[in-house]
Amino acid sequence: MTGRPRRDPRAERARCLVPGGARPRLVRAGWDGMAIVPDAGPREPVMIRLETPAFWVAAVVEAPDGRLDRWGRQTLGSARVLAGTDGGVVALLVGRDVAEAVGEAGADRVVCLETAIGPDAMPGAMLAALAPFAPRHVVLAESPAGGDWARRLAARSGWPIQTGVEMLSARQAIRPVGGVRRERAAVPARLLTLPIDRVAPYGGTRREGRPCPAPDVPAMAARIQVGPVIAAQAAGMPLAEAPFVMAAGHGVRDFDSFHTLSRLLGATEGASRVVCDAGLMPRAAQVGASGTVLDARCYLAVGIAGAPQHLQGLGKVEHVVAVNTDLHAAIVARAGLSIIADAQAVMPALIALLRGEG
Amino acid sequence: MRVLIVGEIGGIALAAAMGWLVLLARWLKGRPATGWLAGLRQVPRRYLVDVHHVVARRPAAARMHAMAAGGVLGGAALALLAALLGAGGIVWALAALAFGMGGIGALLVWRRRVPKAPPALSGGAFLWLPAALAAWCVGNGLAALFMAIGASALPVIPSVVLGGLGGVALLRLVALGPMRHALAGVAWLAGHTRPGRFTGKGRDTGLRPLDLAAPRLGVLVPADFSGPELAAFDACIQCGRCEEACPAFAAGQRLNPKALIQTLSGAMRAVPPPYAGRPAPSVPVLQGKGGMGQPIVGNVLHRDTLWACTTCRACVEECPMLIEHVDAVVALRRGQTLMLGATRDGAAQALRASRERAEPGGRDLAARGDMIAALDMPVLPPGGESDILLWLGEGAFDARYGRTLRALVTLMRRAGLRFATLGADEVDCGDLARRLGDEATFQSLAAEAISALKARRFTKIVTADPHALHVLRNEYPALGGRWEVQHHTGLLDELVRDGRLRLERRESTRVAYHDPCYLGRYNGEIDAPRRLLDAACTDRVEMARHGMRAMCCGGGGGSPVSDVDAVTRIPDLRMEQARAAGAGLVAVACPGCTAMLEGVTGPRPEIRDVAELVLAAVVAGAMV
Amino acid sequence: MRSVVLLSGGIDPVSGRPAPPSGEIAAIGLALSAGGAVGGVHVGLPAAALGQAAGHGLGQIACLRGVGDPVAILAAHLSAAPPDLVLAGSRACGGEDSGMLPYLLAERLGWPLLAGVVAIGTVADGWLPVTIGLPLGARQDARIRLPCILCAHDAAPAPPFVFDRARRVAMHAVAVADAETIAPPEGTERPYRARPRLIGSAAPAGGGRVLDNPDPAEAARVLLDHLRALGMLDA
C-alpha cells in the first residue's frame, strides 16, 4: 500500500539527529531532501582524535574504485550512532584506500582489505582484521556484497545478526520480519546490515581515520574462484535494472538525435507503447504496465504524454524529467522538471552542449 | 429414364451421406459429447431460424444462399421423389423450377467474386463452385423439364450426364473441399456446444467450468476438442464476416478468426485442404504436420494468434454457422497455460499476481477503496446486511476510474440507496485469469469471492465493470454463486425511470456511446446506457459499429497484458471510428474501455463514463 | 548431477497469502538448467506455497518433520545422501527472513557457497562455473567446487508456472531426528510500519519546475544542470 506516509515526530527527530558531538544536534533542513548536512561555511579546523575509546564499533565499507559512496557514508554514520560519544569507529575498507574521506565520514581508524580476497576467505580475513578491536558491533551495508559478507561473518563467528535494519539507535534496531508485514524491535545485535537511505551519514566534526595495518589473510584451499566484474553498458542493460532511462514517445520524430543523446548521457533507452507499436523501437524497450516496470533513479521522458498505463511503469522511479509540448500532459504532473518544448529542438541543443563540454 | 435419374441423383446423395459418415468418424475421435446425434432433430429449426437470422443480415448473400442451396437440394429431392414414385409431370415441373432457381443461385455465386472478389472471401476451390452448381442445376433441371413434358430419352441422357458431372464436382467440393460446411454444419448444429443460443430467451456466453482433476486440461491436440467442436471447424464456409469484424485482425495482430478456424479444421488432417483466404497478418507459414494427436499451437498455429484475441465475440456474433471462436481460443489457451505454462510474459506476471495476491495488478486488496476513500463508503462485514453490494472491480485501483466510481456512488447516494462494498474482502473476480486460460486460478478466486459474498446479505450486486458483471452473473452460477447482478448503467436507468433521479439534458458536444463487449455482446445490454445518454445529453450519435456489433477497445481477454505485436493499436482504430462519427466525447461504461481509450495519444474526443455524464445532468434526487 | 532446492514455504509480502519467494523460483530454474534429478526439501509440514513452487518445475518435495534447529535438520538430511548441488533463494519470506539459513548450512556442512547466482554452466573437473548478477546489470563469472550451495539472484530467469505440475507434485513427509532447539529471536514483534527513506539528493521531487517554451539552448542547460544535480552524469 502506498498511502501518504504518516509523520512520526519522534522518528523524525531521530532521523534529523546528527550523530557525533556531545549534545544532540538536529538538522531540520529539508525533511524531504533528507538530512543533508548544511554546508556550514568554513570547515571547523579541529579533528577529533580518539586514543583509547571505551569500545569499538566496526563498519565494513565497500570502495572498489577508491570512492566512498552514499551507502558507505551511511554505514559509517550508523556505526557512529552505535558508538555514541564513548566508542570509536573502525572502518574496514574493502577496496582502495580512501582514508581521508573515511575520517570525514566518521571513522577513527581504517583497516584496508583487498577486494581480491574473495568471498570464501573474506570472513576469516575480516575476523583477523577485527580481532585487535574486539568490536561491540559490526555494521555492513545490505548490498549484494555487504549482505553476503555479513552472513558469512555471522555463520563463521556465530555472532547474532540483524539484517536489513531500517531504524537504528544506540539502544534499538528495528527490522522487518514476516514478509515485511511485521517488524521486530530489539537491542542492536553484534552484527547489523543496513539498507540504503535508512540512516543519515555522519555530519559531525571530522575524525582522524588513522590507518591501521591490514592483517595477514589466512591461506585456505581455493573452493571458489571469482573472475572480474563485467559492467553492463547502458545500451545493453536490462531496462528493469537500469538506473537511468531515457524514453521516447509519440513526440519524438528525430530518432538519430534520440539515440545520440542517450549514448552521450549514458542512459538506457526506453519507449512508450505507441513507439514500439510503430516499430520505431524494439518491444523490449517498452515502459509501462504491459511493458517493463522501471526501478530507475531517473527517468527522462521525451515526447511522452504519460498515458495511465505508461505511468504505471514508473512505479519506483525517484526522479522524472519530461520534455513535452503539452503543458497539461500527465507526465508533467509527475515530473520534477518539465521542459515544455519540442523534443526535436531540445535534443540537438543538449547534444551540442554535451559535446561542447566534452 | 427414371432409373437413370434415381441412379444419378441418388448416387450422388448416397456418396454425400458416405462422405458425412467419414467426417463423422473423424469428429468422433474428439472428446465425447452427450446427446449429439439426438440433437439432429433440432437441426431444421436451428438452420432455418437461427442460421438464417445471421445470414439475412446481408440480403444479397442470403438470396444467393437460399437460391443456390434451396435449388440444389430442393430440386434433387423433388426429382428423386418424382423418379421414385413415378409421379406425374407436375412434380417434375416443380423439380425443374427448383433446379432453375438453383441455376440462378449459381449465377449469383459467380457474381459474388466476379468481376472483383471482396478481400474477406476465399478463392481457390471456391472458383469452381459456380460451374459445379450450374452443371448440376442446369443438367438435372433440363432432365426434369424433359421428363415433365414427356420427352424421349434422347435429350434426357446428356442432361443427366451433365447433371452427374456437376454432381461429382459438387461432391468433391463437399467431401474434400470448402463445401464440407454443408455436411459439417448439420453435425455442428445438432451438437452445438451452446444450446442456450437457440432458446430465444437469454444469451449463452459464459465459459464452462473445467474439471481440474481431468488428466488433460484444455486443448493441446485436435482430439482434445469435443466432437461437435471439431465439426464446427469443418462447418466454416470461409465467408470472412468474422475477419471483417475482428479488432485484432484490423490492428495487424497475428490473428484472423477465419484463418484460425480453417487452421483448426486443417489440424485434424495430415494433408489439409488448401486454404485460399487471407492469412493472419504477418504470420510466418508453419510447416507442422496435422493429425488428431498432433500438437496445434506452435505446430500448425502460431503462438501469437492465441494471445491476440480480445475475446470480444465480434466474430461469434457475425458467424452465420454459429461457430464459437472464443471458446476454441480459450480451450487452446487453457491447454497452453495449465498444461505447459506457455503464456506471454506479461500474462504470466498477471497470473502470478492473481494467484498470490488475488489481484492481477499485484496491488494490496486493502488499497482498492483508496480512490473513493473520501466518500467514506460503508464496508459490509461478514454477516452484515445491505440492499446493494457494490462490486468495485479492478478499475477501482486506477485514479481515472476512481472518478467514475465517485460519480456512481454520489448518484446512488442522491437516490437514497443503501449500499456497501466488500472492502478488502473483495478479491479479483477472476475474469482475466479465466480468459487467459488459467482456469485453476479462476476457480480458486471464484470460490473465495463466492464465499465472501455468501457471508453477507444483500438483494443485488451492482458493478461498474462489465467483465465482473459477466463473471458474477453468468459464470459464478455454475460454481454455486447465484445473485442478481446489475450493471451501473442498468441501475441508473432504473433510478431515472422511477423518478428517483431527475436529469436535465446538458448542452454537450456530440456524444458517441462505445459499447463494452462484455455488456453488449456478452449480456445483450445496449439500451439502458443509450436511454441515460439521451436523457443527459442533447446530441448523441452512433458510431458505424455499435450495439451488438460494436468494435472492441482492445482491453479484453488479457490482450493488454499479453502484448502481442501489432501494426496499430485497437483503441486508436476505435477512436478513429468515433471521430468519423463526429463525436467530441466518447461515453464509456467499463474501466477497461476507459483505460484503453484514454491511452490514445494526441488530440482526441474526451472520454467520460456514463455515470459521470449522468451526474453532470442530474437536477434532483431523493436526498436533494 | 543431483540438485536439491531448499523451499521455505512462505507468504507474499503484499497479500500475506501463501507464495514461494521469487528467489526460490529462480533457484528451481537454476536447478533445472543444471540437468539431472531435481527435488525440493522443506523443513516442516507440507504447505500451500510448496505446491506453487513445485508448479515451477519440481516433481517431488521432501517435507522433513523434525523439531528444532532447521539448519541441523537439513544438514543431517543432506549429509545422509549428499547431493551435488543445493540451491536456495536469497531469503525466505514470512518468517525471520534474514537469509542466514544457506550460510549456516554451508558452514555446518563445510561446503562453499556463492550468492546472487543468475546462471550456471556445466561441471568440469569438479568445478561448476556460475554467473553472478550484480547491481546495474553487471555480471561476474566464478567457479565453485562441488558439492556446494548456491543462492539464486531474485532476478535469475524464473521457469514458468505450470498448474499441471503443481497438482501432480509428490510431497512426502520424512521423519527425521529432532535437533537442538534454538532460542527465539529477541525483541518485540509488532505490525510493520513503513518509514520513509532518506532521499539522497537535493533535487526537487515531484510536481517540480516547469519551463514553458524556453529557448532550446536554455532548456538544454537547465536539463543538464538538473541531471547533474541528480548525480546521473557522474560516470
Outline the secondary-structure elements.
The complex is a heterotrimer of chains A (358), B (624) and C (235).
Chain A: H1 9-16, E1 56-63, H2 70-83, E2 88-95, H3 99-104, E3 109-113, H4 122-130, E4 137-141, H5 144-157, E5 161-162, E6 167-168, E7 173-177, E8 182-186, E9 191-194, E10 210-212, E11 224-230, E12 244-248, H6 255-265, E13 268-271, H7 273-277, E14 298-302, H8 308-311, E15 319-324, H9 330-334, E16 337-340, H10 343-357
Parallel strand pairs in A: 1-2, 1-4, 2-3, 3-10, 4-9, 5-9, 12-13, 12-14, 14-15, 15-16
Antiparallel strand pairs in A: 6-7, 7-8
Helix pairs in contact in A: 4-5, 6-10
Chain B: H1 2-27, H2 43-55, H3 59-85, H4 89-113, H5 129-148, H6 153-175, H7 181-190, H8 227-234, H9 241-245, H10 247-250, H11 257-267, H12 303-308, H13 314-318, H14 325-340, H15 345-357, E1 388-391, H16 399-414, E2 419-420, H17 431-435, H18 439-454, E3 460-463, H19 466-475, E4 485-487, H20 488-497, E5 501-503, E6 511-513, H21 528-536, E7 540-541, H22 559-562, H23 570-580, E8 585-588, H24 591-598, E9 606-609, H25 610-617, E10 618-621
Parallel strand pairs in B: 1-2, 1-3, 3-4, 6-7, 6-8, 8-9
Antiparallel strand pairs in B: 5-10
Helix pairs in contact in B: 1-3, 1-6, 1-8, 3-4, 3-5, 4-5, 5-6, 7-8, 8-11, 16-25, 20-21, 21-25
Chain C: E1 2-7, H1 22-34, E2 37-43, H2 48-54, E3 60-65, H3 70-80, E4 85-88, H4 101-109, E5 113-120, E6 127-133, E7 139-145, E8 148-152, H5 163-168, E9 170-175, E10 188-191, E11 209-212, H6 216-229
Parallel strand pairs in C: 1-2, 1-4, 2-3, 3-9, 4-8, 5-8
Antiparallel strand pairs in C: 5-6, 6-7
Helix pairs in contact in C: 3-4
